[in-house]
Amino acid sequence: MILDSKIPEGSLAEKWSKHKFNLKLVNPANKRKYTIIVVGTGLAGASAAASLAELGYNVKAFCFQDSSRRAHSIAAQGGINAAKNYRNDGDSVQRLFYDTIKGGDYRAREGNVYRLAEVSVNIIDQCVAQGVPFAREYGGLLDTRSFGGAQVSRTFYAKGQTGQQLLLGAYSVLSRQINEGKVTMYDRHEMLDLVVVDGKAQGIVTRNLVSGELETHAGHAVLLCTGGYGNVFYLSTNAMGCNTTAIWRAHKKGAFFGNPCYTQIHPTCIPVTGDHQSKLTLMSESLRNDGRVWVPKTKEMSARLRKGELKAKDIKEEDRDYFLERKYPSFGNLVPRDVASRNAKEAVDDGRGVGSSGVAVFLDFADAIKRLGKDTIEAKYGNLFDMYYQITDENPYEQPMRIYPAVHYTMGGLWVDYNLQTTIPGLFALGECNFSDHGANRLGASALMQGLADGYFVIPATVGDYLANIGPKPVDENHPAFAETKKEVEDRITKFLSLKGTKTVDEYHRELGKIMWEYCGMARTEEGLIKAKGLIHELKEEFWKNVIVVGKNEELNQSLEKAGRVADFIELGELMVDDALHRKESCGGHFRVESQTEEGEAKRDDENFAYVAAWQYAGDNQPEVLHKENLVFENVKLTQRSYK
Amino acid sequence: MSGNMNLTLKVWRQKNAGDKGGFVTYKAEQISPDMSFLEMLDVVNEGLVKKGEDPIYFDHDCREGICGMCSLYINGRAHGPKRAITTCQLHMRSFKDGETITIEPWRAAAFPVIKDLAVDRSSFDRIQQAGGYVSVNTGGVPDANTIPIPKVIADEAFNSATCIQCGACVAACKNASAMLFVSAKISQLALLPQGQAERYQRVQAMVAQMDAEGFGNCTNTGACEVECPKEISLTNIARMNRDYFTSKFLKEE
Prior knowledge:
The structure holds two protein chains of two kinds.
Chain A: H1 12-22, H2 28-31, E1 35-39, H3 43-55, E2 58-62, E3 80-81, H4 93-103, H5 110-130, E4 144-145, E5 155-156, H6 162-179, E6 183-186, E7 189-197, E8 200-208, E9 214-218, E10 221-224, H7 245-252, E11 257-258, E12 263-269, E13 292-296, H8 299-307, E14 320-321, H9 323-327, H10 337-349, E15 361-364, H11 366-372, H12 374-392, E16 401-410, E17 413-414, E18 427-429, H13 447-470, H14 480-498, E19 503-504, H15 505-520, H16 526-546, E20 547-548, H17 558-582, H18 606-609, E21 611-616, E22 625-630
Parallel strand pairs in A: 1-2, 1-10, 2-6, 10-18, 19-20
Antiparallel strand pairs in A: 3-5, 4-5, 7-8, 8-9, 11-17, 11-21, 12-16, 13-14, 13-15, 15-16, 21-22
Helix pairs in contact in A: 1-5, 3-6, 3-13, 4-5, 5-13, 11-12, 15-16, 15-17, 16-17
Chain B: E1 5-13, E2 22-31, H1 37-50, E3 73-74, E4 77-78, E5 100-104, E6 113-115, E7 118-119, H2 122-131, H3 151-161, H4 168-172, H5 179-191, H6 199-212, H7 223-227, H8 235-249
Parallel strand pairs in B: 1-5
Antiparallel strand pairs in B: 1-2, 3-4, 3-5, 6-7
Helix pairs in contact in B: 2-6, 3-5, 5-6, 5-8, 6-8
């Protein structure tokens, strides 16, 4: 099968507008004859559901949380990029495009990324019109700040809770459409499978998490907006409920999985304190605007710090190694996330880590407080400092924060074409759950941008073309595929509930996480990945024999919910390892130890790996089939990324 | 750092909405003071599952104080003993070794218990659906900087907008009033120029829905403000009342 990305012809700047003109439209009177299913109500899902309902389509929206406002986009802190150039600092659509392609280490499609940069300016306008309270300057206009991987200030923000404010904007327009009867909202519902009829996605099977009831829902198209799969690592900055089930089930029904091994490890998270740890908390990248990252110059000094004999402030300026500023003078502390994370790991591996565990580096605000005053720092980052204090019991105004990288985002996801359609016609993937725009590394403040670009501006145009082509004939929910898929889900649940072993689902999840972090985390080797493959396979065999699932289906049953999610994570873990193993180059967040420059930076192999790896499911315990979509660069020149 | 703790938990267990429910006592042993409160419950639940028993159900998701899903009433206080944090941000260092901790769900007629410690807060969503928005469609909006907003107004609107819709205000209120939540939502849009066109219609619609859901009235006790994890101010309620009266007497259509 040849993967057709459907990138339109023409110059970059014309592609999207030309494409929109060439797409078929659905007549306004016909729109109400279509039903669209939207799974997930984060930025991508809520914005898509609302925008499609505004156009006149009937929408059924689903989320597993108790309210659509709680989807995990809510937790994004720092901001959202847009090429507004309000600062007059040389920003443009072209520059945002270039920064994003380069930041992604030249593993994303030019056409998609350019479109993202192009619609970024509309997103800010849209959110402001909804009443999103972005930070402002005294003159009343919008404020911006800088983020990693860029030399312009293009990140719009709302203190440290930009995600919540943007999501509340999308939730408000979604609420309006629910009120108007155009969106039917199903909360506490989890999608457990995709219904494919004659090769087209036409529905889903869901479980009502309160009653346990299995339901089928039919629609002319299914939009998955279900977020990333970072929880495959058990510990991540994702919410506890974030999972891969929706996209994994779709994958097993025929949707190809793009670049599963591309994982983003965020450099500034609060370090792990013990085995009880259930999740990791991010400290926004925006902190690197004013915080300086350092460790002591010598191992001896680090050892004394760890034992508590020394405090950070006892270490003299000349004994500190501000390693990011030293190695990358032009970007300093604002290098992209993958670079910052790897350097922190290097310092720790070198025995120069701090904190009682030694697995942390400092993020120090003393200089910024001296320069700007405590009040200014508090106004900018107050809630983040409070959050840090609540978790660690340490006051970051008085001593440096301790930070360490943690899994944060997954660039990989379902393979989609320019229309955001997967390899199953009628199945679309938006936001983090697709693979499309960030290549091998996502820049800070670009996730919110992509989620909203997909939902507000891309899908309303592209889904119409698909719908116009299939026509408004009602979907037949009596087609045997619905009952069959529901039966498959039932059988799986029955199987889970029959498992009365000795280990809990969480124990398996933790073990999987350890394997993934150790061998498929910040640094990957062929040897380690081969080992991981064996370990995951053993874990999977054991899981299906020895896990304990308590209770019954007809109740709110967290044990059952988790079992389904972890079973899927284990399978996904295997695919991630296969993908990481086959990609022998280093690129962005995927660092293969065998492939590095003399200075220890990621070394790409453009000759052999400038493609998207799209994996096709081939049956239980069969190796997945690799398809390659070659990446064509007509506008940027591939160079070794440098932030020096 | 002090050593590990042993605690006694009195937890509200209720199979479903129809069940009467009651307290069950559990032991939580070898609890590290660095654990979060929810991680402590995870440990207890692991133990229950290993014995084949039904784990304690509680709502939670982001575990960093922003999604608003966690909702425990701990020792008689919404989100526990500390101010300005959610349950998931509460750490065990706030408790003493040997202590007995009572854990209940939010209690309010408009928040029926679904199971154990989880309640149904969809009434909040319905209040939002009644009018908590600016009626703009996607596309066709002016450039963001054509709407200048004085920084003080923008900051004030932001402060109201920080509400995470957790319902602690209702749980803390002796009348189970939702006024702090509703007024925060109304204030955000009433303060901003974008919200003016529907300002008075909005306050009427949202207050009407709030009443229809069965929330109580405000008697100015102020418990909501004390327990709110995001420190939403009572000023919002005054602002909502003013807008409501204005709309009733002067602007009713």
